[in-house]
Amino acid sequence: TCLMLREIVESHLPADMFGKEVIEPTITAMQEALSKACPKLNPAKIPLVLFSLIGQLLHTIHIKPIQHCMSADDRMSEFFERDKVIDHIVAFTIAGIEAYIREDGE
């Protein structure tokens, strides 16, 4: 995970090497897993769901250092509680998938 994040943020390997050997197999595995887990989800929407999920995860990782720059205000600390963020990402992604399935079923 750390290697992938480092390469996405600050690439040191040739772009085609990282893409072909790391990103493509990972995305393919994620697409297959999502397709099996959500068989009613339109296959054309799976890349969009993954794009959103990956974006949420990357944002969560990138935003963490900003916490140290903010005031010690307890209201802000809840934004950085790992378990709450993970629960939110799961719930938000599930809701999006369910909305897509309902939309396509209408």
What are the main properties of this structure?
mainly alpha, 106 residues, flat
Structure overview:
The structure is a single chain. This protein has 106 residues and is mostly helical. Helix content is 73%, strand content 0%. The chain is flat, with a radius of gyration of 17 Å. The mean pLDDT is 83.
Strand segment tally: 0
Structural class: mainly alpha
H/E series: HHHHH
Secondary structure: helix percent: over 70%
End-to-end gap: 39 Å
The biggest beta sheet is recorded as: none
Q: Which percent range describes the beta-strand content?
A: under 5%
Shape: flat
Number of helices: 5
Low-confidence stretches: none
Radius of gyration: 17 Å
Average pLDDT works out at 83
Helix and strand topology:
Layout: H1 2-9, H2 15-37, H3 46-63, H4 74-77, H5 82-105
Task: Offer a quick outline of the entry.
The protein is mainly α and 106 residues long. It contains 5 helices and no strands.
